[in-house]
Amino acid sequence: MTQALFALPPPLVEEAVRRALLEDLGRAGDITSAATIPADATATAVIAARRPGILAGIDLAASAFRQMHPAIDFAPATADGSPLEPGAVVARLAGPARPLLSAERVALNFLCHLSGVATLTRRYVEAVAGTNARITCTRKTTPGLRAFEKYAVRCGGGYNHRFGLDDAILIKDNHVAVAGGVAGAVRRAKAFAGHLVKVEVEVDSLDQLREALDAGADVVLLDNMSPSMLRQAVSIAAGRAVLEASGGIALETVVAVAATGVDYISSGAITHSAPALDLGLDVSVDAG
Question: Which residue among 218, 245, 253, 257 is least packed, with the fewest CB closer than 10 Å?
Answer without folding.
Answer: 253
